[in-house]
């Protein structure tokens, strides 16, 4: 726990704000997905910190221990599964460790790595988000009595989506070092979060070409063009 938290009394959760007293560390490189989590934490009473890479997450964890860690599987400097494994075997252990990904097929790997649960992107439903955390919190951190179910859908600002597109456009321009697995995980996640069906299909086409062993260049070019079209259509922010 960080120095600030150690000086502050833990706030008791309430039916309306069931995550009061909880600190969430979200390890996620997508600003759009991180903003969705931030908004849900705000509505739930939780405090939040963000790390956009494994290295940044390790620096955070060297200083304080959160109550909950939400860890994306696909990160720019490696797999979130390695971090999940490390945190799951650490003592004392973080109360709740959840893996997150835009690929539902990664759930088995997340659980095998030692996570308590899995959340598929898009992360948008407030009640489902609260339940995913509360289901694994100890009894003394649970809200008293019946919990108010807030069946609310959270939508981040479009600026965060544009930031993600600009980031991946830069990655795609660097053809020699472009990590296709990272590109497909990152873009697949934000395409689902933003419900951009055309972008999601372009990601699927690239994944299929890679799996089939055919040339990925046509699909990479098509994906890059689609991303740049989205950026141009948005105009200056």
TrEMBL record:
InterPro entries: Bact_response_regulator (IPR050595), CheY-like_superfamily (IPR011006), Sig_transdc_resp-reg_receiver (IPR001789). Residues 23-136 form the Response regulatory domain. The modification 4-aspartylphosphate is found at residue 72. CDD domains: REC (cd00156). Coiled coil: none annotated. The keyword Phosphoprotein applies. It comes from the Bacteria. Keywords: Phosphoprotein. This is Response regulator. The lineage of its organism: Bacteria, Pseudomonadati, Pseudomonadota, Alphaproteobacteria, Rhodobacterales.
